[in-house]
Amino acid sequence: MQYRDYTDIYAQFLTGFADTRKPLTIVADCSNGTTGMVWRALSLPNITVHLINETPDGNFPAHGPNPLAEGAADQIAAAVRKHGANLGVIFDADGDRAVFVDNTGRTLPSYVIAHLLFDEHKPPYVLDLPTYYIMKFIKYERMRDVRASQVGTRFIKTTMKQCGASTAAEYSGHYYFSDFFFSDSAILAVIKILNALSHLPQSLAEFYDSLPTVQIANFDIQLNKDSIEVLKELEAVLGNKAQGSDHLDGLVLEFSDWWFLARASNTEPLLRIFLAARNKQDIEQNTAQLRNIIENV
Known about the structure:
The chain is an alpha/beta fold. It folds into two domains: 204 residues, Alpha-D-Glucose-1,6-Bisphosphate, subunit A, domain 3 (Alpha-D-Glucose-1,6-Bisphosphate, Chain A, domain 3, 3-Layer(aba) Sandwich); 81 residues, Alpha-D-phosphohexomutase, C-terminal domain (TATA-Binding Protein). It is 35% helix and 23% strand. It contains ten helices and 14 strands. The relative contact order is 0.12. One of its GO terms (biological process) is carbohydrate metabolic process. InterPro entries: A-D-PHexomutase_a/b/a-I/II/III (IPR016055), A-D-PHexomutase_a/b/a-II (IPR005845), A-D-PHexomutase_a/b/a-III (IPR005846), A-D-PHexomutase_C (IPR005843), A-D-PHexomutase_C_sf (IPR036900), Alpha-D-phosphohexomutase_SF (IPR005841).
């Protein structure tokens, strides 16, 4: 059997997307997964890269393979501040998800990255339901160009192809591109964000601060009853107060100052809840309200 290493070929392909117009510094946390070998082969113009946890190790000694896990971004936040970097990114183990931190070390929600990517690409765009309603809630000025999709890779790709979308994003940190075969690539997302940042007149933190304030919560509730009945009860209790509703993937109810999405897990007996409001007090109050309704079905 003949072995051939395609890493350099792939890195050269990715480098072709680079269009950074000013020097930038990035810290990339590879989470002891697969992206380190690709990053070492990349040569991006105007970009200084500091790699951490770049050696593959299935024991994941640094912080585990999930970049959204509590505490996972602590190391990269400190490294960004240490190096005075313009941004940082932490990958999951297989390199298809990316979670970004700004130049102050703050973890950025995926809607911020979607906003930047959309500014760099032609419409239309696709978002999974949680991100779609976050963008709608902050009154993203180009919502007319955005299509909503059910959560999940299969649904995102199908929706992209149906509407001819250039770019898509999921709440979980997956970013998809039509010029990447309608597939997701975390490293390509980073390259495109570097391009976008090099075109901005402000820092990444300043861009984030310029967006409307929104508080986001997501959590799971274990069920010992049928999820369809729970969703029906939520709509029966709260639907008459809602200003809008959506049944594309579970149940979305929109109110003047908050909204929620409740959708059943495809693999576990639980309900996944996404919730957004203007402040933490409203998040806490409405979380308690939802839990009370669900627990009393």
